[in-house]
Design goal:
Blueprint: H1 14-24, E1 28-30, E2 37-39, H2 41-60, E3 64-65, E4 71-73, H3 74-77, H4 81-87, E5 93-96, E6 99-102, E7 105-108, E8 113-120, H5 125-135, E9 144-153, E10 167-177, H6 180-201, E11 206-210, E12 222-229, E13 235-243, H7 247-252, E14 255-257, E15 263-265, E16 267-274, H8 276-285, E17 302-306, H9 314-329, E18 332-333, E19 336-337, E20 340-342, H10 349-359, E21 363-367, H11 369-374, E22 378-381, H12 394-422, E23 424-425, H13 431-438, E24 452-457, H14 461-468, E25 474-479, H15 480-483, E26 504-509
Helix pairs in contact: 2-6
This protein binds one RNA strand through β13, β16 and α10.
RNA sequence: CGGGACGUAGCGCAGUCUGGUAGCGUACCAGCCUGGGGGGCUGGGGGUCGUGGGUUCGAAUCCCACCGUUCCGACCA
C-alpha cells in the first residue's frame, strides 16, 4: 500500500503522466519560447551520457567530428527538390541583420534586409554537401566520414518535451562513398551503432527495418530505422540512417576522379539520433514513481543519502559516506568507473531519497549510525522501489555492485522486451480484425491500447494509406529479420490491407 | 492556419457573473520539535492581477484590440 510519486499515474492519463515524470525528475521545462524547452541539469546529464557513449562509437567506426554553420543560404537548400518539399513547411527564416528603434519599439531595419534569406538548419545535407564537393577530388578521398553534434530547428505545429520540440539537439553523420554498395554498408553499420546504444545502453528493445516509401526521409533512396514500443503501445522512431543515393551529390556536385580517370558522382549517406531518445527512455522505462534509468546510461548509478538525525554522529556518518563513495568509485561496470555521489544537501533524508527515486537513479544507499555500527548499508533498488530495502554488509555490497548493476540493466531490458513481444500481434490476419484492433478507444487506458501488428503487406502505398490513416496507424518499418534478402522468409498469407499477394512483412502501429 | 480553453506570488489555483484596491495551497526564509516512506507547529518575505486603450469617483472584475500559453485538427525525428 504505497502511494506513488507521480500523479496522474500511467493508467489514469498517460500523456499527463509523461509530463509529470519530466517535471518530477527535474529534467526539463517549457521555456516560454514557442515550442522550445529548457533542458535542466539532470536531463542534460542524461543527454551527455548519450553523447559520450555514442560519440565514442562514432569515432571508433572511423568518423571525425566537425561543425557547419547554423545558417543555410536558401539557394543551397533549394538544390534538392524532394528535400525542399519535405522541409519547406517548417522553416525558420532569417531575413534581416539589424534592429532599429521605431517609436520605442525594436523592429527589423528595412534597410538591413538580406539579399538572400538564410534558413536556420533543419538538417545539414545541403550545406555539408557544399563542403564535401570541395573536400572530395579523388577516389583516395573516399570514404569521407563526417559527423557533427548540433542543434536544429523545425517549426513544428505541435510540440512535446523531448519527443518533438521546435529546436532539438542531435548528431548528424554525413558520409560520401565511391559506390552504392559502400554507402549502403555505411547505413547498416551506423544502424548497428545505434542499436548498440539503444539496446545495450538505453535498454530499449528495437525492431530494425527499412521505411516504406511514404515514411522515408525527404531526399533519401532508403531510410533505415530502429522502432521502439512505448508503454502505451505506440511506436517511437529512435534514430534514422539514410542512403541518399546520388541525389545530394548531384545537387552539390560531389564528384571524384576514379582510378581510370573517369569523373563520378559520390553516393552519400546521413544518419541521426536526437534528444528524442530521452523521451523514448522515459516512455519505455519510467513508472508511477518517476524515471527509471538503466545503469549503463545513468549519470549517477549510486547515490548515498547520509542519515544525519544525530548531530553528534554527523561527522562520523559523513566520513563513512565519503569513504564508501571512494570505494564504490573504485569499482568498474561496463568498462567505466562506477558513478557515485554523496547527497549532502541540507534536506530531510526521506525527501532526498524520494528525489533520487523520481530521478531514476538505479541504487540508493542510506547510511546512518545504525549502519555504521554494523558496517553495512541500506539498499533501495530503483527497479523495485516497492520492495523491501536490503541491508548487506558494506564490503559485500561493494564487491557485488557490478553484478547488481548488470542484473538491473538486463532486467530493465527484459521487461521492456516482454512488453514489446506481448503486445505485438502476429495473429491478425484480416482487415476486419485489424480495424477492430486499432479501433479501440484508447483514452487514458495505456495498458489496453493497441500495440504493434506484424503482418504480410502488398507494398501498395496508396491503398494502404487510404485505409490505415483514418485509424491513426502508419507502417513503422519493414523489419529486417523477415525482409532482408539474407534472412528472407517469403510472407505466408495475403496482404492485411488489400487481401492480395504480399511482398513484405510490415509493422503497423500508432506512432509518436 | 481553423475550433475550444486559459493568462492573478516560483508552481498550482480561487476571486471576475453581482466593480470598492488581492487571497488559498504548495514551494521559499527563520525558530523550535522531529527524522531510515517523502514531517509538525509558530512566525515571515514575495504579486505593474498578460499588454495597450476605453467606461467609471473607483477596474483583476465591464467593453475593445493585441500578445502569449495550452488542448483538438492538418504537418512531423
Amino acid at each position: 500500500m504505497s502511494k506513488s510519486a507521480i500523479s496522474p499515474i500511467r493508467a489514469e492519463n498517460y500523456p499527463e503522466w509523461y509530463q509529470a515524470v519530466i517535471k518530477a525528475a527535474d529534467m526539463a521545462e517549457l521555456s516560454g519560447v514557442r515550442g522550445c524547452m529548457v533542458i535542466k541539469p539532470w536531463g542534460y546529464a542524461i543527454w551527455e551520457r548519450v553523447q559520450n557513449v555514442l560519440d565514442g562509437m562514432i569515432k571508433a567506426t572511423g568518423h571525425d567530428n566537425c561543425y557547419f554553420p547554423l545558417f543555410i543560404p536558401l539557394s543551397y537548400f533549394q538544390k534538392e527538390a524532394t528535400h525542399v518539399e519535405g522541409f519547406a513547411k517548417e522553416m525558420a527564416i532569417v531575413t534581416h541583420h539589424r534592429l532599429i528603434n521605431k517609436n520605442g519599439e525594436l523592429v527589423p531595419d528595412p534597410d538591413s534586409k538580406l539579399d538572400e534569406p538564410l534558413i536556420v538548419r533543419p538538417t545539414s545535407e545541403t550545406i555539408i554537401g557544399e563542403a564535401m564537393a570541395r573536400a572530395v577530388q579523388s577516389y583516395r578521398d573516399l570514404p569521407l566520414l563526417w559527423n557533427q553534434w548540433a542543434n536544429v530547428v523545425r517549426w513544428e505545429m505541435r510540440t512535446r518535451m523531448f519527443l518533438r520540440t521546435a529546436e532539438f539537439l542531435w548528431q548528424e553523420g554525413h558520409t560520401a562513398h565511391a559506390d552504392e554498395a559502400d554507402a549502403r554498408a555505411e547505413t547498416e553499420r551506423m544502424l548497428e551503432v545505434y542499436r548498440a546504444l539503444i539496446e545495450d545502453y538505453i535498454a530499449m528493445p528495437a525492431i530494425q527495418g527499412s521505411k516504406p516509401e511514404s515514411e522515408k526521409f525527404a531526399g533519401a533512396e532508403d531510410t533505415l530505422t530502429l522502432e521502439v514500443m512505448m508503454q502505451d503501445g505506440r511506436a517511437l522512431q529512435s534514430c534514422t540512417s539514410h542512403y541518399l543515393g546520388q541525389n545530394f551529390a548531384q545537387a552539390a556536385n560531389i564528384q571524384f576522379q576514379g582510378k581510370s580517370g573517369s569523373l563520378e558522382l559520390c553516393h552519400t549517406t546521413s544518419w541521426g539520433l536526437s534528444t528524442r531518445v530521452i523521451g523514448g527512455l522515459i516512455m519505455t522505462h519510467a513508472d508511477d514513481d518517476g524515471l527509471v534509468l538503466p545503469p549503463k546510461l545513468a549519470p549517477q548509478q549510486v547515490v548515498i543519502v547520509p542519515i544525519l538525525r544525530d548531530e553528534t554522529a554527523r561527522e562520523a556518518v559523513l566520513n563513512y559516506c565519503d569513504k564508501l563513495a571512494t570505494d564504490i568509485a573504485a569499482q568498474t561496470y561496463a568498462g567505466e568507473a562506477v558513478r557515485v555521489k554523496v547527497d549532502k544537501r541540507d534536506e530531510e533524508s526521506a525527501t532526498k531519497r524520494w528525489n533520487w527515486i523520481k530521478k531514476g537513479v538505479p541504487v540508493i544507499l542510506e547510511v546512518g549510525p545504525k549502519d555504521i555500527e554494523k558496517d553495512g548499508v541500506a539498499v533501495t533498488r530503483r527497479d523495485d522501489v516497492a520492495g523491501k530495502k536490503t541491508f548487506p554488509a558494506r564490503a559485500e555490497f561493494i564487491a557485488g555492485l557490478p553484478a547488481l548493476l548488470d542484473e538491473m540493466q538486463r532486467g530493465i531490458y527484459a521487461r521492456a522486451l516482454e512488453m514489446q513481444k506481448s503486445r505485438t500481434r502476429t495473429d491478425i490476419k484480416t482487415w476486419a480484425e485489424f480495424e477492430t484492433y486499432f479501433g479501440k478507444d484508447t483514452d487514458g487506458k495505456f495498458d489496453e491500447a493497441p500495440g504493434f501488428v506484424r503482418a504480410p503487406w502488398s507494398g501498395d502505398e496508396a491503398a494502404t494509406e487510404a485505409k490505415i490513416k483514418p485509424l491513426g496507424v502508419t507502417i513503422r518499418c519493414l523489419p529486417f529479420d523477415t525482409n532482408v534478402p539474407d534472412h528472407a522468409a517469403v510472407p505466408s498469407g495475403n496482404c492485411i490491407i488489400t487481401g492480395g499477394a504480399a511482398k513484405y512483412e510490415a509493422i503497423f502501429a500508432r506512432a509518436y
